[in-house]
Amino acid sequence: MSARPVASVRAGGGAGEPAPSSPLGVLLPGGRIRPGTAVSTGHDMPLLLALAAEASRTAVGWAAVGLPQLGALAAEAAGLDLASGMRIDDPGRHWAQVLATVTEAVPVVLVGPLGPVPDRIARRLAAVLRRSGSILLAAGPWQGAEARLQVVSARWEGVGDGHGLLRGRRVRVAAAGRGAAAAPRYAEMWLPGPDGAVAPVLDESDAAYEPSPITAVGAVREQRPVLRVVG
User: Fold this and answer.
1) Where is this region: Disordered (predicted)?
2) Looking at per-residue confidence, does 131 or 17 come out higher?
């Protein structure tokens, strides 16, 4: 079996290469999530939230449809602005219509596994995305996704023999796409990192990553805005 390319994502690029805006950038076509497209995430919530935070860098407003398990603290730690987000936990049997309406109005939409997506509905939603320029991030598989990302290995680090602080989850993410981007690509990163957001792997030991006091188990957090829940 031939070796596959692996990128150990670091803080800076090589000679003459700009550093990606996010460790996920090396896995995305053109280094970013293009407006009007969909990306699937293989049912990994930290990966879904990291992509949502990346997409929200240039857009104001996001929505989560069919994701009742989404945690407000995790979303905030990943980099999402809770004040500009809303959540529709149960869109009901007419979820496709709800999703189309939300996608028309909100620039970044996270969608849970709502069931099989018939070709007719997939084509309709793809047309809505192209027209609105919104980005759809699917927790599970999504027909017509421009990129398909999946965490293929993960380990939490920071806890020793029954004691210590979790400093982050080091993962290996695989990505595949369409056309020239169809060949699988891999990258390693912290997801989440010590502060809750995606972070680059600095070196083999990654000694620069020390547990932050706010990420300690049982740490007290200040009160923050909560997500608006619709329906």
Assistant:
1) 1-27
2) 131
Model pTM? 0.79
pLDDT for res 158 = 76
Residues 197/46, Cβ–Cβ less than 8 Å: no
The CA distance from 175 to 150, in Å, is 7
| Token representation of residue 84 | 């500009």
Burial classification of residue 160, based on how many CB atoms lie within 10 Å of its CB (0-12 exposed, 13-18 middle, 19 or more buried): exposed
Pairs from 10-19 (Cβ < 8 Å, separation ≥ 24): 10/200, 10/201, 10/202, 10/203, 11/200, 11/202
Q: Fill in the DSSP letter of residue 221.
A: -
Domains and CATH numbers, the chain: 22-147 (3.40.50.300), 148-202+211-215 (no CATH)
- pLDDT > 70 in the chain, percent: 75
Closest CA to 39 of 170, 148, 159: 148
- Alpha-helical (H) ranges within 119-214 are 119-132
Output the CA angle 187-188-193, nearest 5 degrees. Answer: 135
Closest by CA to 46, choosing from 173, 192, 199, 154, is 192
Lookup: tokens for 127: 């047309």
Confirm if 15 and 122 have CB atoms less than 8 A apart: no
